[in-house]
Specification:
two-stranded antiparallel sheet, 5-stranded mixed β-sheet, elongated, alpha/beta
Length: about 160
């Protein structure tokens, strides 16, 4: 489905959150930056850990197995994406947008889908599974146009 005029476009990953408005129409997309935010990625996973991974004792015998380490960097990225979902929820409840297009890499898109409010879900017209947060606006526009044209039914 083509992206209508005034549709909100979210481009998000574990570090950046970009909001655009389509100032064009369904035939000619024209994204304008509305809001953006970037997470401070100064903490590395090793800086966040304070101890070695835990171990558990086997209930039978004397065996021990180590537990999987928590990936704090991934947790930070997931929380950042959930923050984007919360931002969308606030905007949807204020009727800030009627149509939404989401562009995010696979992992971020999965976290975002789980965190979306029902009011936001109703307004999603397009989701694109691709990392685009570091790309210029014309590249994002071209991707959206190519993805929405590909999903249109072919003329008979």
């Amino acid at each position: 489905m083509p992206i209508p005029n005034n549709a909100l476009v979210l481009v998000v990953d574990g570090r950046k959150m970009l909001f655009f408005r389509n100032q064009g129409d369904e035939n000619q997309i024209d994204l304008r930056t509305e809001d953006h935010d970037e997470r401070d990625d100064a903490n590395h996973d090793g800086d966040l850990k304070t101890d070695a991974p835990g171990t558990s004792h086997s209930s039978v015998g004397s065996g021990r197995s180590s537990m999987e380490e928590t990936n704090f960097k991934q947790q930070d990225e997931d929380n950042w994406v959930k923050e984007a979902a919360e931002n969308l929820k606030k905007r949807a409840l204020q009727n800030d947008f009627d149509h939404l297009c989401i562009v995010a890499p696979p992992k971020a898109l999965g976290v975002l889908r789980k965190a979306l409010h029902k009011e936001v879900e109703k307004r999603v017209v397009c989701t694109i599974n691709k990392e685009m947060s570091g790309r210029p606006i014309p590249d994002i526009e071209a991707l959206i146009v190519s993805e929405t044209k590909a999903s249109e039914p072919a003329d008979i």
